[in-house]
Amino acid sequence: MITRLTHTTIWVLDQAAAKTFYTEKLGFEVRQEMKTEQYSWLTVGPAEQPDIELILMEPGQPAHDPQTEKQMRELLAKGAIGGAVFQTDDCRKTFEEFSGRGVVFTQEPAERPYGVEAVFRDDSGS
Predict the structure, then answer these.
(1) Which keywords does this chain's UniProt record carry (predicted)?
(2) pLDDT surpasses 80 at 126
(3) Inter-CA distances, 38 with 52, 58, 73, 110, Å
């Protein structure tokens, strides 16, 4: 029986740039970082939620053939592959804070039936 989600993947175009974005602009902490001959493993997460790890992964080997990797990179660059939904105590305040750090929002905070929502893209387009 599955009891919880511990990791989820956010596809990125450049893992080093994504690390900078998620740690310096969003304030996440690095959880795991290692390199093997086949791939580079990097996970981050919000300090307040130690039980979840976001895998910042570039498309490519060993999981994807060259054609699939190319297609995924094109879709990422277009912003067609979504990332995640994050929660904050004050969406408008976080919007101002992140905007000041250079985070690009595609939607400013707006009232929705479920609460206040703002949408940003990471440096890979997600």
Answers:
(1) Dioxygenase, Lyase, Metal-binding, Oxidoreductase
(2) no
(3) 24, 12, 18, 43
CATH superfamily of domain region 7-121: 2,3-Dihydroxybiphenyl 1,2-Dioxygenase, domain 1 (3.10.180.10)
Tokens of 70: 């190319």
Report how far Cα 86 is from the mean position of its chain's Cα atoms: 10
Mean pLDDT over each residue of the chain, to the nearest integer: 93
* C-alpha distances out from residue 65 to 97, 102, 107, Å: 39, 34, 34
> Tens of pLDDT along 75-114?
998 888 877 899 999 999 999 999 999 999 999 999 999 9
